[in-house]
Amino acid sequence: MKPLLIILILFTALTSGAQQSLTLENCYQLVTTNYPLAKQTLLLDKQNKLDTEVISTSKLPQISLDAQATYQSDVIEFPLAMSGIEPLNKDQYRATVSVNQLIYNSGATHTALSLKSAQLKTKQKQVEVSLYQLKQQINQLYFSILLAQESKLLLEAKQKQLQAKLKEVQAGIKYGAVLPASDKILETELLKIRQQFQELESSKLTLLQSLSSLINQELNASTRLQNPLIETPLETDLNRPELELFQLKKEEIEQSENMLSKQNAPKLLGFATGGYGNPGLNMLDNSFQTFYTVGVKLNWKIFDWNSNKKQRGSLLINKDIVDNERDVFKLNTSIALNKQQQEIDKNKAFITSDLEIINLRKEVLKSAESQLKNGVITSSAYITELTNLYEDENTLVKHKIQLQLAKANYNIIKGQ
Predict the structure, then answer these.
(1) Which pLDDT does position 14 carry in this prediction?
(2) Helix 108-174 to helix 379-414 angle, to the nearest 10 degrees?
């Protein structure tokens, strides 16, 4: 058992120390399932199940119990010719159990269940829409962290180049080929690079904490995000969940119209009442008696002052409002897509010119390295050229990240 235990401990140590890797798709999936709002889908489902059970009870017999005791100031009196009949008591008592059974209600129960189902779909789609809209926030955080990652790699390359150049300069000072104190300038620049590392790490950690809160996943400074290769599809239709939400809203309105059409429809019920009281149904029998009644009754609302008609008109206006919201959404989406397309085209042009600038900067730096080695220029002049190259390479990385961000936003806006 001991060798197995040692292997397990070593495996745990290795996996815990391994660098965490995360992709953009991982973040999309995690925010959809882990964001607190995602819990509402299940809660809405549970709520709908209870509401459906309540509506379905209208098909079951409705049982009620009534009991009353009264004292009347006066009762029916009979003429002297009928004096043989015992006068009624002024105190009277009655207890009844009534059962009502719905026989026919023009399909109102079925329509109510359909409306409740339509409302559930609309609410759940609204949750999906809200979660989907978080993806652009994910994009902003993800690519900001990615930019910090890539900037750190460039800064490490600059640091290594300066460290190598510092050794050369120190050797040149030793043999008198380079001016004294030239190494101090390089050492100062290396100290500045350390500060830049600290600033990048602090910025990355802040962004990681924000991303961690959104996706509910533990992230730390060692977490590495993978650079996605994103392609934007050409001229495809919108596939946003908002469009499905608009359609579900219209279906819900249609179900509400069906429900309204059943409100004034006739309803047929069967009923039965059994009781015990004094007097019973025979008012002339002044004693406690059992009694019962059975029958059917029809309820039909013939006139409602056009209330139902006006409610239907209001629902028709709601349909027009939903259509208007859909048109506004499509227009705003089209504007947002055009903006992202311009951002994509702009960054592509920037990248082309960035590459030309960097090639020229490399030639200048190569010349400066030779001049520094031969003591023709100072370390300050060399650092200036090296910094110029670093800044241009950083600009290239920034434009590449911005291009990927614009593509990712384009796809999210498009619904891909």
Answers:
(1) 41
(2) 170
